[in-house]
């Protein structure tokens, strides 16, 4: 799976995903200061799933009508420690392979998933 990690995504989680074999581009080191719309465009061009803690991406997915080959996984839980965040991120991404075409919101006790088609 090809991942585009937002600039706010924790370094430990990026390292854990890479260790598990995910192809991860991290905006913090690859293109710092990129806007959210630039991230969306890059994810579409490179067929990457965006992982983020930035809740603005839910609104942007709705506004821009993302195509089915894009995906956004929004993590909305309190990060207790970098190690726990990394574990949770890897476990979440490993739980399924069909993230493309969806906005997923990962909360403390559940994952809500909506197809982009239902966002408009």
Automatic annotation (TrEMBL):
Database matches in Pfam families: DUF5615 (PF18480)
Record-given protein name: DUF5615 domain-containing protein
InterPro entries per record: DUF5615
Source organism of this protein record: Planktothricoides sp. SpSt-374
Segments forming domain DUF5615: 1-108
């Amino acid at each position: 799976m090809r991942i585009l990690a937002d600039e706010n995504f924790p370094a430990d989680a990026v390292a854990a995903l890479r260790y598990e074999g995910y192809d991860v581009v991290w905006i913090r080191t690859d293109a710092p200061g990129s806007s959210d719309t630039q991230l969306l465009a890059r994810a579409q061009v490179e067929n990457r799933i965006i992982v983020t803690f930035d809740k603005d991406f839910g609104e942007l997915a709705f506004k821009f009508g993302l195509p089915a080959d894009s995906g956004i996984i929004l993590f909305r839980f309190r990060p207790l420690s970098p190690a726990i965040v990394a574990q949770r991120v890897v476990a979440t991404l490993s739980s399924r392979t069909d993230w493309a075409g969806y906005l997923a919101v990962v909360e403390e006790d559940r994952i809500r998933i909506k197809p982009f088609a239902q966002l408009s």
